[in-house]
Sequence to fold (101 residues):
Amino acid sequence: MELAVIGKSEFVTGFRLAGIRKVYEVVDIPTTESAVKSVLDDKSIGILVMHNDDIGNLPEVLRKNLNESVQPTVVALGGSGEGSMSLREKIKQAVGVDLWK
Fold:
């Protein structure tokens, strides 16, 4: 399973430097939507990292798909993040057990 990152240039640069190969640099909402759909269709991706603000700008149907997605598991970083699942909740959803207990 691979890790993918979707976001603006300043968000994805560090991931690119860390050696992540599946980096989708986006500039606006339509390109973000396209990248998310592409990642959701790619069965080789196990984890998707996005900025909370970028997720919040997506249409409601696509946000719902991301929140319910088990593969890839979506990890939201930065921003306000209100209403989004925590990393702990996402891992519990993907694995089926709470690893912190």
